[in-house]
Amino acid sequence: MAKRPTKASKTETPVAAPRKAGRPTSAKPPRPRAKKAADAAVEPVVEAAAPSPPEPNSEPKPEAETANPFVMPGAEQMQALETLSINIARAAMTAQSAIAEAALSQADRPAALSPDPFNVGPAMTSVMTSLAARPDKLFSAQADLFSRYMDLWATTSRRAAGETVAPSAGDRPDKRFKDPAWSENPMFDMMRQSYLVTSDWMNGLIASVEDVDPMTRRRAEFFTKLLTDAFSPSNFLASNPAALKAMAETNGESLVRGMQNFAADLERGAGKLAISQADYGKFVVGENVATAPGQVVWRDELFELLQFDAATDQQYAVPLLIFPPWINKFYIMDLQPANSLIRWLSAQGFTVFVCSWVNPDQDKAGFGFDEYLDKGIYRAVEKVLEQTGSKTLNTVGYCIGGTLMGAALAHMAAKKDKRVAATTFFAAQHDFEEAGDLLLFTDEHWLSSIEQQMDEAGGVLPGAAMAETFNALRANDLIWSFFVSNYLMGKSPAAFDLLFWNADQTRMPKALHMDYLRSMYGQNLLAKGEFGIGGLKVDLGDVTIPLYFVASREDHIAPMNSVYRSARAFRNADVTLTLGGSGHIAGIINPPAAKKYQHWTNTALPATLAEWQAGAQEHPGSWWNHWAAWLKERSGEQIPARDPAKGPLKPLEPTPGAYVKVKS
Questions:
Q1: How far apart are CA 306 and CA 330, in angstroms?
Q2: Alpha carbon distance 183, 204 (integer Å)
Q3: Is 635 within 8 Å of 394 (Cβ atoms)?
Q4: 645, CA 20 to 30 Å: which among 145, 155, 269, 591?
Q5: Each residue of 623-649: pLDDT tens digit?
Q6: One of 98, 345, 399, 527 is an active-site residue; which one?
Q7: Domain Poly-beta-hydroxybutyrate polymerase N-terminal: where (predicted)?
Q8: Which pLDDT tens digit goes with each residue over 318-329?
């Protein structure tokens, strides 16, 4: 049995206190010189003498510390290192286990339909062949890259020497490198700038190729950009100072959490990585999003018709019917009370109806534009007029819902159907000649691949497939930012209603989707007057009712130039066009109270967007008030407010209804 230590006697030499961990602060005593052999031989041996008593009034001299070139960390540092090691091991085991489970879950599935579904290989071959045939251009490009690196090395050397160096003209703000360490730490600053120099040079080289088909070059540009974005040093733990700092400060806990997030996303994607963009558990449709009050007044196999409660005592006589895109759910227009377009329209005195499309399953695989025209547009128009007793109504078409609405207006014009008095298009395209990067996804090679994918899914396109395409259009914002935050930093996704909606995708019927991709993006038939729908070839030039177009300046799905061309395609209509700030969603869902962005107006509609912009007037904030004034002039007189529960169509259930709650 171990004895407890006893107190030291007065005659014992006290034990020195242990040294603190870290580098020694006292000077090391000089090592004794080796004595010459002759001196050593004659030097007398002296007995050890007792220490002399200290002189009066003299301070005792501290003994010199024993030199120790291998300073061991203290207990706290050892514990931190041990915790860090354990957590790194835990993170690695979590990731390996998740990957193994994903591999097993995918083992019985067929291999990828194509190793190159977007047909990038032939595009890159054409570009590289062109560059090889122009050695002078290639030599010039290499000289340019060398010059850029020489400038970078010179700047880095000056900084290392202590000189203050102003940022270069090309050192533009980049959200990926917003952490101060990317510029304050010389190593990470060099890494960041070296990456930017190389990626900018590579993307510029591909874009400069002239003697290849423009669409081929554009495909090569797009996927070169995807590649260079993926290889950003911010996307790797070892080269991301913010992630390394988080790992050090948490003793590796951030990495454990990150790998747990990674495993959860693999499980949610059934073996495919489905990166979480929001805390999906924080939102419930009908409880804290999509809460505008109203009633479902009609339901059939294709849509539910929602009528929203009046917010004023008086309403305009002409009702308003909104057709959202069937690729998303309608509640982007009713996320929260503060930014709800539906609530705002009700407060302006409009009777608001929304067509809430069904989330189609395999039984709708054969539904195409004809069904969505007849059972969608026409039936919804009929039911709104029946419910309100009005002779006419106004409509809104958002994105692909606007494409369908434009074709429907041309069909109505051909049949002399005048039930729609005026229509508004939110970020909608009808002329697809300049439809942006989505044109790259309509190559016949890719279309064949996506068609096979839909066949395997029973005739519908899974919602996640289209989400992946849209995310690829803005990879840094919608893929890599979440990859870094969720996995490298170990953060939990934020409770963001818009990104919750963005992930709540719907399926699409094969017949409708393939016709849309081939007829619109592939052949631009609607703008050419050659698109067949409802038994007719329709011409947008037949439409003569008032139209209001809204484009967004930074829209990557419906680019502003494409929307402008679409507005001009209705050559015989009275068209008003407004350009809003921001993108496809924020540019449209921009309530006036937010006082964000700006918008531009111009009563003319000249040949090009550039001419229109040159003559446009800029206004601060949202475009909603400008549109509401236009719409009120075309909505008839004021009448007592309508109650959705008291119309001819009997209410089935409160809004938002059942269809919007169906998950893909």
A1: 10
A2: 24
A3: yes
A4: 591
A5: 999 999 999 999 999 999 999 999 999
A6: 399
A7: 174-345
A8: 999 999 999 999
